[in-house]
Amino acid sequence: MSDKKEPKSIERRRFLRSGMQMALAVSLGGVAGVSLLKSTSKDLVWQIDPFKCVQCGRCADECVMTPSAVKCVHAYDLCGYCDLCGGYLKPDANARTTAAENQLCPTAAIKRQYIEEPYFEYVIDESLCIGCAKCVAGCTSFGNGSLHLQVRHDRCKNCNDCSIARVCPAEAFQRVPADTPYLIKGGFTKGGNSEDKLKKG
Amino acid sequence: MNQLKRYFLLISVMLYGAIQSFAAEAKQRFPKPEFDTGYVQPHTTAPSPRYMLLQYFDVLVLLIVLSVVTWFVLKKRSRKGVFWTSVFSLLYFGFYREGCICSIGSIQNVVLGMVDPTYAIPFTALLFFLLPLIFSLFFGRTFCAGACPLGAIQDIVAIRPIELPKWIQKVLGLIPYLYLGLAVLYVATKSEFIICRYDPFVGLFRFDAPYNMLILGILFLAVGVFVARPYCRFFCPYGVLLGWMSKFSSRHMTITPAACIQCKLCSNSCPFGAIDEPVVETGKRRSNVNRLMTYFVLLPLWIGIGGFAGSMMHVPLSRFNQTVYLAEQIIEHPEVKNDPKNIDVRTFMSSGKSTEQLVQEADTIRRQFYWGGWLLGGFMGLVIGTSLINLSKFRKREDWEPNKTNCLSCGRCMDYCPVKKEE
């Protein structure tokens, strides 16, 4: 009985509503389909290409984390173990010692350790490193470039839009698959001796 | 002797380096020494990111939360249940997952996946985009009620909501459309993700953020005490999409479980002004129809005007793109080329790219903004024209009903309704 009494306008409304619902469902399906064509089952994380990095220092300031999730890492295979280290000592340092006044690093995060004449080992203390890239600039200009910046994934929040990437002047930030999350230098040129990368595999 | 030689070499390298300071390139200047003392080289560590399966776990949590809150809204009709689900979402997606990944931001990933051939959208991000929309298409905006951490944090602070005048609500309600359009425009031109950049609450979720982000979040919460859920109603771009879905949803929440007794208690309970009153047509039928027809005829005009206005705005709009901004700076203020403090210009100068190349790139991007401006403006014209049509359309309504587009399915009105379920 009640079905018959239903006015025409209600019937029409219901028809329009379900029609629109179908149309929206189809368009959602379309968006899903187009996206799925190129979708990846792997998640993406941010990483710095050390060969594009220009050591501008923004990584220290722009990260949503304090201190930054970007830290200096040391590719020991590339290090010359120099006594006069461009990454450790200020250019105008008056002695090659561990005295604070001679250190380039503002937080003394690089530990200098004597090995044998005339070689010294340099190790980054990541709990102190703020990612300012001062040492990276020094090492890249005067040395082998074994010190370089990397996003450390134990600290990185993996923001959808990395706030450093947005202001990186060299476009060195890129999304990489989460199962190969680092671009640690394995050679002196991009894609050069990739022995180190293979080891990380 | 060896040391002395290295020293001289270093000095010469330093001189060379000083000259070439910005075009520095990594090269092997000092070979790795052979150690006699049996020194063992330490290993470069590489701490892994969050375990990948956990991203799928997040999707599962979202699915469960959506199902639970939909059940609370539609079957249990329990405001308490909805509230505690939203508290859980706030704790999990907000404070534990620290606001990333979220459905609102996933709009940008979907758009970038479509326009950028080098970007493949992660499957989890796509699911975060789709699931709430699918739920909304059938059950209304239950995502807003209980699964969105941004909504939850605002819902908790909405203690003394005041009712805004309808016209203010209508005008402010246009902002989300503009925000959505701008977000798509800036992603489509590969400029930036503005939704993430101006997310007001992510700083609070992380207890750590730049000051402007924190201040924005606190401001939203302070306003939110009196104007309930201001971000959801007047900014959220994802809410636009959810509203479209919800408007045509087949099983949207109802205020009363049985017949409405016209007590009006619900209209006081809704802090969002999302309950439509009963209407009867006022004025003359003929003039009403004429007005409606006029608005329909004016619709293309609105789109045209909007599109034209949008295209006129393309120069200031494009300035937020880094490349365009850099090119503009170099052309208008050539003296910046010699400013060592300007990192962007300095990097560009040492990159070996010519100014012509940069200008050409910037021109291409600006063209994209020109056509994007047409589309964005046309879209806004369509939105304004449609809302005028909606305003002058009399749809007979006898009971108090939730406005399906704007209703956030929070369930407050169900609590206030004195009618009990017929057994």
Helix content of chain A: 25-40%
DSSP, total strands of chain A: 6
Largest sheet of chain B: 2 strands, antiparallel
Chain pair with largest interface: A-B, 84 and 85 residues
Radius of gyration of chain B: 28 Å
Low-confidence stretches of chain A: 194-201
Report the sheet with the most strands of chain A, covering strand number, pairing sense and barrel closure. 2 strands, antiparallel
Uncertain regions spanning at least 5 consecutive residues of chain B: 15-24
Distance between the termini of chain A: 73 Å
**Overall tally of structural domains of chain B:** 2
> What is the helix fraction of residues of chain B, given as a range?
55-70%
- Quick check: average pLDDT of chain A? 88
Largest sheet, spatial ordering of strands of chain B: 1-2
> From the helix content, strand content and strand pairing of chain B, which structural class follows?
mainly alpha
Strand % of chain B is: under 5%
| Topology of chain A as a string of helices (H) and strands (E) | HHEHEEEHEEH
Q: Can you give the mean pLDDT of chain B? A: 90
Rg from alpha-carbon coordinates of chain A:
27 Å
How many runs of DSSP E, i.e. beta strands of chain B? 2
